[in-house]
Amino acid sequence: MTRCLFKCPHCGSRLKQTNSRQEHDLFRVAYFYCENVFCGFTARGEFAITHEVSPSAIPNPEVNLKNLRNSGIPNP
Fold first, then answer.
1. Are 47 and 30 within 8 A, CB to CB?
2. Residue among 20, 76, 10, 72 at smallest CA distance from 47
3. Which of 46 and 3 is assigned the larger pLDDT?
4. How far is CA 11 from the centre of its chain?
5. Which candidate, 60, 3, 57, places its Cα nearest to that of 26?
6. Which residue among 49, 50, 51, 52 sits deepest, i.e. has the most Cβ atoms within 10 Å of its Cβ?
7. Distances (CA, A) of 63 to 1, 24, 52, 57
8. Pairing of strands 27-34, 14-24
9. Buried (b) or exposed (e) across 47-66, using 16+ Cβ within 10 A?
């Protein structure tokens, strides 16, 4: 699994992910700590899947995501 890369908002050092758990099919909570031992910052982050870029070939009928192309949101 690829980890997200964040910088500490206080000292600019790298935040390292300690663990995460999936709360729902489309929602995950993760915990982070600053690698700078003199800083001591810890954080909780939330990640959500909000739109589909391309639909699944085997869609789950319980998942209802808006298509990014039809949403008006710019696609990078």
1. yes
2. 20
3. 46
4. 22
5. 60
6. 52
7. 23, 11, 10, 13
8. antiparallel
9. eeeeebeeeeeeeeeeeeee
User: Would you place residue 72 in the very low, low, confident or very high pLDDT band (cuts 50, 70, 90)?
Assistant: low
The answer to whether the beta carbons of residues 29 and 46 sit under 8 Å apart is yes
66-74 average pLDDT score = 72
Mean pLDDT across the stretch 2-25? 91
What's the predicted TM-score (pTM) here?
0.74
